[in-house]
Design goal:
Number of domains: 3
Order of helices and strands: EEEEEEEEEEHEHEHEHEHHEEHEEEHHHH
Mean pLDDT: 91
Structural class: alpha/beta
Number of helices: 11
CATH class of the largest domain: Alpha Beta
Length: 432
């Protein structure tokens, strides 16, 4: 029987302080008060002073509350019964289904041993041309989606969840509005993707500490599925809410703030989650896509700024589209050389011509006379945006490449594109 401590030294927000010995960092404790039982987690150790974040908040907890440490860190159960289920950030069922208790697995463990990893080599098909053709998602990659409030980043994640050619989807929602949670659940259920999905959802009204645990819960489950030789895609939204929750806890604990009030270990905290992306040499893989909203569309904000140093590129979502400029998949060259021989040529040529289109738009806005070439570029740019960039476009990569050739043929002569003759002879559409 573990010792029960019956004196709380200090209460600040949802953090309480007790004096105890033999306690570990992130260990769980049960706090008993007249209001009932509340789970808490050790978030700081200073000598014999132990700081605990109370999941349900400290309301109703007095200095004579009883604290009993459980001798273990937070765990998440694991079995195939998780598929199709929805849980809170603390692992409790949110869908009113039965609790799952098999195979409790600690969360927040170390990343996979580099010796067990292999170089990323497989494409993850999504059916979205701006990803598949221009910034290919690679199995075991970690990529953020940089966006701002109001952009359809959650619908984009839902589409990827429905269409990605993977075995298991693990969705971690942090600070979601209740409507967003219902949207994810209904879309996945209606499209038949819920049966291969596990959802860990923290809403804005839930305790802050649960927001901090969502990525660890999702990634711990993903790792277990990956060890069963599954291809797992982890979708996280929104990592800025995760960082804001870290900041709130740090302020409560009176830590010395760093840039814009965020804790000094922000980079390490983000990196420890993103580095869970892995392709095991003898098992499956974990691929991570994580939304990072940018307050004021400021990419120098600490959260996107630190994220950019950790991840292997980024997708920029602006005006309801994945922007070709700024978006980057640093691993795409590992796979798009093997998709189809014209893939890299179409990718490079279409983006170059789209950049020329943007220059022509600027000339037009300043009142310059439009040449015949400018008119072709204007037509091309509009067609490219409507038939390739629009997020409603849903076609396999082979059809997307064929559509790219068709758009080029509709707007230009083959010689005007700068594409090698051997490719135009093979792929250029023949006019009837």
């Amino acid at each position: 029987m573990r010792k029960v401590y019956q004196k709380v030294e200090q209460i600040a927000g949802s953090v309480i302080v007790v004096r105890a010995e033999g306690v570990g960092y992130r260990e769980l404790a049960m706090v008993t008060s007249p209001m009932g039982h509340s789970l808490a987690q050790v978030i700081r150790l200073e000598g014999d002073q132990v700081y605990l974040q109370v999941f349900a908040g400290s309301r109703g907890i007095s200095t004579d509350a009883q604290v009993q440490f459980l001798g273990r860190t937070m765990q998440v159960p694991f079995s195939d019964a998780l598929l199709g289920r929805v849980f809170t950030g603390s692992g409790e069922p949110r869908d009113k289904g039965p609790a799952i208790e098999e195979n409790p697995t600690p969360i927040g463990g170390p990343s996979a041993n580099p010796a067990k990893r292999v170089i990323p080599r497989n494409m993850v098909r999504t059916g979205i041309p701006m990803i598949d053709v221009f910034n290919t998602l690679v199995e075991s990659q970690k990529l953020p989606i940089f966006s701002v409030a109001g952009e359809p980043y959650n619908p984009l994640l839902a589409r990827i969840a429905m269409q990605a050619e993977v075995d298991v989807i693990v969705l971690g929602g942090m600070g979601l509005k209740h409507d967003d949670y219902l949207f994810f659940r209904e879309v996945l259920e209606n499209q038949g993707a819920l049966s291969r999905s596990v959802l860990f959802i923290h809403t804005a009204s839930d305790p802050v500490v649960e927001c901090l645990m969502v990525p660890d819960m999702a990634l711990a489950v993903a790792e277990q599925f990956a060890l069963q030789d599954k291809r797992v895609l982890v979708l996280l939204t929104d990592m800025t809410n995760f960082a804001d929750a870290m900041k709130e806890v740090a302020i409560t604990m009176e830590q010395i703030p760093s840039n814009r009030g965020y804790p000094g270990d922000l980079y390490s905290q983000l990196a420890s989650r993103y580095e869970k992306a892995v392709d095991f040499d003898t098992a499956g893989s974990i691929t991570i896509l994580a939304v990072t909203t940018m307050p004021g569309d400021d990419v120098t904000h600490p959260v996107p700024d630190n994220t950019g140093y950790i991840t292997e590129g980024q997708f920029y979502l602006r005006n309801g589209r994945i922007e070709p400029f700024g978006s980057l998949s640093r691993l795409k060259q590992l796979v798009n050389k093997d998709t189809r021989e014209d893939h890299r040529t179409i990718m490079d040529s279409m983006i170059q011509l789209y950049a020329n289109y943007k220059d022509t738009l600027e000339k037009q806005s300043m009142g310059f006379r439009m040449s015949g070439w400018d008119q072709k570029l204007l037509r091309y740019g509009q067609q490219f945006e409507d038939e390739m960039m629009d997020l409603s476009v849903n076609i396999p990569i082979e059809k997307a490449l064929d559509r790219g050739w068709k758009i080029l043929a509709d707007c230009f002569d083959a010689a005007e594109t700068g594409i090698p003759t051997k490719l135009t002879q093979k792929f250029w559409p023949q006019k009837a």
